[in-house]
Design brief:
single chain, about 550 residues, mainly alpha, Serine Threonine Protein Phosphatase 5, Tetratricopeptide repeat, elongated
């Protein structure tokens, strides 16, 4: 090709590049997301909340009336529980019935993938609403879809709470923008509905309205005193009031969040923002059970400096979008700063699910997207980056395959976690290594929840029945964990203390009325101690619970 021909073709090439558009962007985003997470369908449970929500609460999940009753109670339904999350509970109930009454774990994982797909598509639509260029919106949504820092929210069944929250929060943003644009009452009602659903899903949604204000006023230049915005503020206030009233009623009689030392908790937690930024830009130190003290800062410091330089280098930056991105990142992380260390020490990566949207907004104001490359070239390079992120994600999500994989990675990446060592010690076959891990956990934190219980179970499995007693008593004193009673009954039997064994089993059955072994043992103990009336009442109660009663007992009482 000579220079004359080249000059003639350059305008045509430039025009073609300028007209470049991605066909069916939503379809491609959905396909890419689904394919990446398809392997998670074959995964099981990891024994961290998911087993409790599906198996321990199966009686609660079975009753569809609890879709409404869930609004009257807390997440784990204990006096110390302040987690009021009825919508999340309802999502689990519905999923339980879709999954053959909890038997088909693959269905739970499939729903997690589909929820993530919906979130990805909504994030793309939000970026478009905010005036982000279509190709840029596609690239950013694809990064959101495949980024390994969000893998836990999809691979871990219990972590779907963040995905559900994101769906409702982003849908709220979109409909709030739509109402500000066209004033249609339908959009106002939908935005209010989505805000309510977000609030009833997780407490973090309290920051959704301030974030929406930032998007509407500084970013989209809507007058903050316009009639439509004033109506929206009123609807938001009504949603908050309704949520507070219902939540207060459900939490009546529960312990309140300890305010003493709250400022210290916030100051202690704030540096995690730097750690989180490092995990987003340099995802090489990810942990499925992360501790603040086991997470390095240098990735975050380096990433923060790089991001700052990129923002400064872009002379055409939109300051309002930068403020909006930083606000979303900080606002949706801020509630985690209020969590006292004695309640939760983990800095879970799934908490980045919504804050990640803020970081992606910042990228629109950097040379990474605003440069001399045409859209086709930019997309090509972006697909390479997304491919690398997807490969890291693919490898990382395997840590959620089963309890042994999960707790092995948790212990390796968080060596200061007594809980991780304890959970791993209970899941490995090597007795010597199991014992060593337990002792390490005990040395790190002898007051770790369930630590004494798990070691007591370990001792009983080794037939060291009497030696296990002090550990179960210690656990019961510290946490009141009812499962201790079942094992203490065995200790009492070993000591020939039938009265003590009966007392422990009676206490245990108050918390787990359908445990077959506990009920049968209690029935036999009543008979062995000539407590005929109690034995008959126990047999009748077992029948009422649908438990099998020995034929000899039924004949004995003519039942």
């Amino acid at each position: 090709m000579n220079k004359k021909q080249q000059k003639k073709e350059e305008p045509a090439i430039a025009a073609a590049a300028a007209a470049f558009k991605i066909k069916y962007p939503l379809l491609w985003l959905a396909i890419a997301t689904f394919i990446l997470y398809l392997p998670t369908i074959s995964m099981g449970l990891i024994d961290l909340d998911d087993g409790v929500l599906i198996n321990t609460y199966k009686d609660f999940n079975e009753n569809l009336q609890n879709l409404f009753l869930s609004f009257k109670g807390t997440y784990f339904d204990t006096k110390a529980d302040l987690l009021y999350r009825p919508v999340y509970s309802d999502v689990m109930i519905l999923n339980y019935h879709l999954a053959d009454h909890g038997a088909n774990i693959a269905v739970f994982h499939l729903i997690n993938i589909l929820l993530h797909v919906v979130a990805v598509l909504l994030v793309y639509k939000l970026f478009i609403k905010l005036g982000v260029k279509e190709v840029h919106a596609f690239i950013l949504a694809l990064i959101f879809a495949v980024h390994p820092v969000l893998a836990s929210a999809v691979s871990w069944i219990a972590a779907r709470i963040e995905t559900v929250l994101c769906i409702f929060v982003v849908a709220f943003f979109i409909k709030a923008i739509d109402y500000a644009d066209n004033g249609k009452i339908k959009n106002l009602l939908l935005s209010s509905l989505f805000l309510l659903l977000a609030l009833f899903d997780k407490e973090t949604a309290v920051v959704a309205a301030p974030a929406a204000f930032i998007l509407l006023v500084p970013v989209l230049h809507k007058s903050w005193l316009s009639k439509r915005n004033l109506i929206q503020y009123s609807s938001w206030a009504a949603c908050y009031i309704l949520w507070l009233l219902v939540r207060s009623s459900a939490l009546r009689g529960h312990q309140s969040l300890p305010l003493e030392g709250l400022a210290g908790h916030v100051i202690y937690r704030m540096p995690t923002m730097i750690q989180y930024i490092g995990k987003i830009f340099l995802p090489f130190n990810l942990s499925i059970f992360p501790l603040q003290e086991d997470t390095v800062y240098y990735y975050g410091i380096a990433a923060s400096i790089i991001l700052m330089v990129l923002l400064i280098l872009n002379k055409k930056r939109n300051v309002n979008l930068i403020v909006a991105g930083l606000s979303i990142f900080v606002l949706f992380l801020a509630p985690t700063f209020l969590i006292p260390k004695n309640l939760n020490v983990q800095i879970y990566e799934y908490r980045l699910y919504i804050p990640m949207i803020g970081i992606l907004l910042l990228l629109t104001q950097t040379p990474l997207l605003q440069n001399k490359l045409n859209d086709k070239q930019l997309l090509s390079w972006s697909l390479v980056v997304c491919g690398v992120l997807a490969c890291i994600n693919f490898v990382y999500q395997k840590n959620f395959s089963d309890p042994l994989s999960f707790w092995t990675q948790a212990e390796a990446s968080s060596p200061h976690s007594a809980y991780a060592k304890m959970m791993l010690s209970a899941r490995i076959d090597d007795p010597a290594k199991s014992e060593a891990l337990f002792m390490e956990a005990y040395k790190l934190d002898p007051d770790e929840r369930q630590l004494n219980f798990i070691y007591g179970v370990h001792l009983q499995e080794k037939d060291s029945i009497l030696a296990s007693e002090k550990y179960f008593l210690a656990e019961k004193k510290k946490t009141g964990y009812y499962e201790c009673d079942f094992y203490l009954a065995r200790v009492a039997m070993e000591k020939k203390d039938l009265k003590g064994a009966i007392s422990y089993l009676e206490s245990y059955i108050k918390n787990d009325s359908k445990n077959i072994s506990a009920n049968n043992n209690l029935l036999l103990l009543y008979l062995d101690t000539d407590q005929e009336d109690k034995a008959k009442a126990q047999a009748l109660r077992m029948e009422k619970e649908g438990l099998d009663v020995p034929k000899s007992v039924l004949q004995h009482f003519n039942l």
